[in-house]
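BUG-110 | component: ligand-complex export | severity: low

The export step for iron/sulfur cluster jobs runs without errors, but we want the raw record kept on the ticket for reference. Input record follows.
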Amino acid sequence: MLDQGLLKEFKCAGCGDCCRWTGAVLLTNHDITTLANHLKLAEPDFIEIHTRLASNRIQLALLDKPDGSCFFLDGDQCGIYTARPEQCRSFPHAWRVPEGCPALDELREV
Ligand code: SF4
């Protein structure tokens, strides 16, 4: 977990870098329902088109683009922002982020 004092000062710079990191955006059941509704897809179709089995073999994860960034990253913006998964909503508060987020890196330097 990150230092709570730092997190109070955190303001996302909107660069989209965290959506380019390799790794899995794990989905909850609620995420799947929300995203399927948002994309106007039946849940089985959403699962078929947009997810893969995560390496923990018990959860689904969003598919990535070939470069490892999130499929839904559009330029520097999340293309599904209002319906984004819980894991994305919890950034950076519930994440271990050693480095790579410009907004957090700047706070660490102050
Ligand atoms: S769903 Fe949106 S916020 Fe989450 S990784 Fe993908 S582009 Fe980023």
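Assignee comment: Attached the raw record above. The two ends are 19 Å apart (CA to CA).
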